[in-house]
Amino acid sequence: MVKAKRLKRLKKVISYAAFVGPALIFFLTIQIVPFIMGIYYSFTSWNGISSTVEWVGFENYIKLFTDDPKFFDSFVFTTKFMFTAVFISNIIGFSFALLLNEALKTKNILRTVFFIPNVIGGLLLGFIWQFIFIKGFASIGNITNIGFFQQPWLGDEKTAFWGIVIVFAWQISGYMMVIYIAALQGLDRSLLEAAKIDGASGFRMLTKIIIPLILPAFTICFFLTISMAFKIFDLNISLTGGGPFNSTESVAINIYQEAFTNNRYGLGTAKSILFFLVVAIFTTVQVIFTKKREVEA
């Protein structure tokens, strides 16, 4: 009897290991081990090539706070970009979801059209929009004399910032739309119908019934957009390359250049560890805040 139980338990362990084991091995190999190695290298002055690794302790972290203003300029840009892009992307995504949740004949086609930009790779998307900003807008501006199209979109600090925001929102809003649509379709229609019968206006239904009931979707969308906006790299490097004059250099580009262009891998990994902590703090605070609102709703 005891042997039978042990065999049964062993079979369960083997079956679980067969399913979870490969994924766990890949996760440890690709994520956890490199992360631990990154923490180690952040305390060294390794150049990424040499076989000798010199331990320097907290010297790299001290440099970040005392002798690297360019890094903190990139942090300011990335944080400003994150707040702006998250707000605009979620507003557009939620608006699309409200529109396409209605009984429109073309809603399936429109959902596909709005989602397609998310399928295109960031580098390719950046180069496409670079052509649009430089050639397309200039041509329209010459024909129409409209000031909006005549601006140096990627050649000026302010317009380059908004150019990156526009492309990011254009790419990611369709993804957010899909999540919001799924949440809207899960609503109890009887609640909305009862509110209509009671004379509730569309705006009051939106703010008092719909949004409180789909707050879990907002939690997910805010988490995704915050992390994506913070980690922006391919879109940024293909649109502006961090220019003009490093005014649109994201933290990811700064870390990449430090580690692989300047060959200061130790300092680059120290920046990446600090960046990881900041992103983790922002996303954790956001999730805690929105989760509390869910409970209140």
Question: What fraction of residues sit in β-strands?
Answer: under 5%
Question: So how many helices?
Answer: 13
The CATH topology assignment is MetI-like fold
- Give the radius of gyration: 24 Å
Describe the biggest sheet? none
Quick structural summary:
This protein has 297 residues and is mainly α. The protein is 79% helix and 0% strand.
Describe, in plain words, how this protein is organized in 3D:
Helix 3 packs antiparallel against helix 10 (215-230), helix 10 (215-230) packs antiparallel against helix 13 and helix 12 (251-261) packs antiparallel against helix 13. The longest helix is centred in the N-terminal third of the chain and has 40 residues, at 2-41. With 297 residues, this protein is mainly α. The protein has helices spanning 2-41, 59-66, 69-100, 107-119, 122-144, 147-150, 157-185, 189-197, 202-213, 215-230, 234-239, 251-261, 265-296. It is globular and about 75 Å long.
List the keywords.
globular, single chain, MetI-like fold, mainly alpha, 297 residues
Strand-helix topology:
Elements: H1 2-41, H2 59-66, H3 69-100, H4 107-119, H5 122-144, H6 147-150, H7 157-185, H8 189-197, H9 202-213, H10 215-230, H11 234-239, H12 251-261, H13 265-296
